[in-house]
User: Fold this.
Amino acid sequence: MFERFTEEARQVVVAARQEARELGHEHVGTEHFLLAILGRPEDPAVAVLTDAGLDREAARRAVRSRSGDGDPAQALASIGVDLGAVREAVESVFGKGALDAPPEEESKRRGWFRSGGGRGSGASGHVPFTARAKKALELSLRESLRLRSREIAVGHLLLGVLREGEGLGARLVVEHGLDPDAVRRAVEGRLGASPGV
Assistant:
C-alpha cells in the first residue's frame, strides 16, 4: 500500500511516529496522524483545518491534555489514581521499599515498571500503530480509490482519519467545533474531486 503514497504522505506517516515518540506515547494513534498532517500547513487539504483555526500547536495541546505526555503517573492521575497514595498503602502493609525491585531484577522489568518509566519504545525505536490508526491508513487508500486518484496524498490521509471517526484524531476535529462532513467536502474539493465521485 505504501508504494501508492506520495512522498509528502510518506513523510506524514514517519512524522506521526515521531509525534508519538516526542509525546512519550508507546503507540501511533489517529491523533498522531492528525498532528503530523497539521505539520504540513502548505498542503491545500491541511489548509481546510488551519483556515478554521485548528493548527498543530492547538491540536498538540489537546492531545497532551487528553492523553498526557506518556507519563504513567499522569495517566493514572487523569483517571483519579494517586500513585503516591498507592505506594504509601502498599508500603504500610508490606514495608518500606516493597515495590522496589532488587538491582539484579531491574533489567527484567516490563511495561510501565521498566527502567525509564515506560516512556518510548526501547532501543529499537519501533512504535506500533493502534488498530484505529491502521484502519485510518486503510481508509485513506479507500478514499483515494473512491476519488479515482492514482496515489494517496496527505488529503487522503486526513480523509481516512475523519472516516475512521472514533479515534482521538477525528474527535479533536469535532471538539474544535468543526463539522467532519463539511471538512470532508472541503478536503475533497482541495483534492480536485467532487464529493460524489
Q: What stands out?
A: The chain has two domains: 2-68+128-190, 72-113. The first helix runs from residue 7 to 22. The chain is about 55% helix and 0% strand.
